[in-house]
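Entry:
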Amino acid sequence: MTSQTVTPDATEATLAAEEQQPDPRTGRAIRLTEVVTLYALSIASALVLSAVLVSVTGGSWSEVMDALLKGSIRAPGRWGLTLGTAVPLLLVALGTIINAKAGLVNIGQEGQLAIGAATATYVGVRLDAPGPIAIGALCLAGIGGGALWASIAGGLRFYRGVPEVLTSLLLVTVAANLVGYGLKNRWLLLAPAEGRANRNQVSKQLAAGSRLPRFEIFGNSIPLSVLIAVVLAVAVSAGLARSVWGFRLRMLGQNPRAAQRAGVSEHRYGMVAMAASGGFAGLAGALMLAGGDFGNYQLVPGFAANIGWTGLLVALVAREKAVVAIIVAFVFASLRTGSGFLAATGVERRITDVVQALIVLALLVPPAILFIRERRRALAAIKARV
């Protein structure tokens, strides 16, 4: 049996090597600083470019910002309206996050929301029940309608090999025509002729018992759907991060082959993810109807009002994080409600769409830069080893 003698030189070399190893906490702090700096620079660039565009169109950037803030938050009753507008955006984003975690691309939320609103309207105007039961049935009808519509794209994807990104998009047009057909026929959605102009193709207004309760806070009317949406966002975040179902869903999205070897059924979990995505969009349509912030408690042509498309952007900007989507949905809702006050500035209302697009691009630039940098570092490390 031999004993090894540790020389002072060897000890000093070991200590020196340990000192040269980077501290993990320092590395995380540096990375966080870089990420914050990138996002700050990107947002600042987007705002500066927006100011330039406003100036080019003959407006004043300070007046536009003041109008947006006044129309979304500062004017009496406006931040309550902004919160009500943020609800469907957040719900659509939550459904998008779920199907994205499974590696699926559903971009038909606009049609799924419209179908959900239509089925909720059909049930809501016909069901004579106490308030909580009527509201619950209305919401379940919206969830069912949206889930069924998204499941069509899911079924074509998993049983016929048709890409869901195409079918879900094409089904938006089909949904719009179906809802339009329903609003032309009394036996479906069209309101009775009494009290309605002949050319107005609208549904019957929901009864008072089928409407969501609203709360008055500092002069703002806020629907109960705000609380429902926030609770669902927290639940989705916890479910995806901490539940077995969420783990399997994330595994399927990151590595389908490994997930299948681990016993995760791609067809079953993929169909559930698509149905959940459509269900959230359908619930958004139902709460838009019952909340009263859209359409005055009745289904009207163009009821979806691009909420589905904007909710998709909310999920994209939030980078598939449900809790972050709460803040992003409020920002996008502020742009939407604040644009109503732009007429006084002489600037075209559509300028808010340009600002929104610039903000989306600004928030997508940092992840792209970080991805490219990490990829280059990984390739350099591989070359160094070789």
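The first helix runs from residue 8 to 20.
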